[in-house]
Amino acid sequence: MPGSPVNAEFEGRVFEHPEEFEVSAESIRDFARATGATQESHPAHFDASRAADLGYDGLVAPPTYPVIIAQRAERNYIAHPEAGIDFSRVVHGSERFTYTRPLVAGDRVRASTLVESVRQVGGHAMITTRTSIVDAGAGAESGNGNGEEIVAVTSSIVVRGEE
């Protein structure tokens, strides 16, 4: 099986996503519904007063919500013409979230993706990225714009080699 054309020289590069992302109450509710949460099972995703009762400054995003932000940032790497990644050959490997605090409605964040590793295994490329999602500014409900990391998303993908 021929090797994958993925460019290993991208290892160690950082891709800054050029736009801020605002975590909205509507997007939290939509994501929560899409992942099977209900107002009864997870009220802090749907009702701001219930979230406040639990000590949060706004609706609380589900734990996997940052994948929305991370994938936007990762796209800057994956779509780079010199990266050599054919997205039609990508298979999801894993996702890990490391939090310093939950994302809540009103957070404004920025994201940057580090290409942690690119390695060839059996004609396929195994890629690990780490997307850092940081506080970008005072949101309507929370945040102080200190640039501190809120959550890191570590993703692994496999780019299947040519058959």
What key attributes describe this structure?
single chain, 163 residues, alpha+beta, Thiol Ester Dehydrase, Chain A, 6-stranded antiparallel sheet, 3 helices
Q: Span from first to last CA?
A: 6 Å
**Approximate strand percentage:** 25-35%
Tell me the Rg in angstroms.
Answer: 18 Å
Q: What share of residues is helical?
A: 10-25%
Q: What class, by secondary structure content?
A: alpha+beta
Tally of helical runs: 3
The CATH superfamily of one domain appears as Hotdog Thioesterase
What fold name stands as the CATH topology of one domain?
Answer: Thiol Ester Dehydrase, Chain A
- Strand segment tally: 6
What is the CATH architecture assignment of one domain? Roll
Q: What is the C-level CATH assignment of one domain?
A: Alpha Beta
Detail the poorly predicted runs: 139-143
Mean residue pLDDT: 92
Instruction: Report the order of strands and helices.
Output: EEHHHEEEE
Largest sheet: number of strands, sense, barrel closure? 6 strands, antiparallel
* Overall form: elongated
InterPro entries: FAS1-like_DH_region, HadA-like, HotDog_dom_sf
Protein name: FAS1-like dehydratase domain-containing protein
Organism: Sediminivirga luteola
Pfam families: FAS1_DH_region (PF13452)
